[in-house]
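Handout, section B. The chain below has 417 residues.
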Amino acid sequence: MAKTMAQLPYHYGVKVRVFPSTEQKRLIRRNSDASRFIYNQMNGMNNDLFWLKQVKIPITLVLDRIADLAERLKKPSTAISNIHGWLNHPDFDSLMKANAIKNYKTAWKLFHQVHQAGTPKFHKRGYTQTYQTSCLYGVKVMTPAMNNGSVRLTDPHHLWLPKLGRLRFKGFPSKLLSRVDDVRVGTTTVSMDAVGHYFVSLQMGSEHPFVSKQPVIESKVGIDLNLDNFLTDSNGKMVANPRYYRMIKGKLAKAQRKLSRRARRAKKNQRCLSESKNYQKQRLLVAKLQLKVANQRKNFLHHVSTALIKNHDLVVAEELRGKNMLRNHALAMSISDVGWRTLLSMLSYKADLYDRIFLTVNPRNTTQTCSHCGYVMTGRNKLTLADRKWTCPSCGTFHVRDHNAAKNILAKGLATL
């Protein structure tokens, strides 16, 4: 019997750009709207159930409503489809409905585990579209692969999706095209961004590694993330901060002011924004500028994280809480621009992918501690953000602030091993 995706030891994600026809775009939009509607219906039923249970007086009408909601939530897919008959239209993917309900339950599970994520909220309609489907394999399929499921590659330039049919794509890794029979497909996400580009994200699973095993280098590094430069490692090497958002901030602000004026003009003339051509043209321009910054930053972070993981057996970084740091209004923009949390998440999954070790440590006193003798700067001697270089009053060692912090981070990481 073939293993499920969860049972496979190796997983990989691939996101490719697709080029749907007009009819396929219509189907994507309908399935996206239906997925959002089902998620919101689940949220609405749970909210009603919660508040009705707060009623202390046992009114028959309230008790009947509670029993009805509890029964509907046992089989939500059937219950929602029975009340809203339009969801039974052949345009809709049945696996889309199942995934929308699964995503809602996952959101609650994440809330119970983390609590900081918050309870599930209603999804509002926007300029982006997304829905999920799953790849199913027939009973007669003995070996699940990329070319024999409900989501499959028909050739190196086309894939097949339920309800949508054949789609042309580009950007698929060549190393996976040579392993079509060795890799199976799991959850598949179809999406459209604010610019109007369509993508398909495929979850892959296999019995064998997706990347070749890297040789043991016996190199360990600690990295200090800062705003003066992007990062400084324990070897003294620095990576400059590209500041992509700052480079385009003036142009983006000008475009956003123009967008705001067009929105006010459309409202004054009592025109719907979706039908205002001038507004939509400017909205697209703003979205392209924001997308450019996001793509530049993501490309930069991928290059930095891959280089760190491939060139070192152990990478240690400080555990940063970006949400807390963003409360500092003076540094919020600069912190958002560097993308520290994204880098840490990339280092985490790439360490598993390349069989390396990645650790995060408590950043407490990593800047204030002398890496040579362990003396901690406190009281009047405590370093401020303006102090980029300092001399230890205990042992007299001269330190460059970020290099010293990186050494302390590496030492903390080695101590936890």
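Note. The first strand starts at residue 10 and ends at 19. Compare this with the example in section A.
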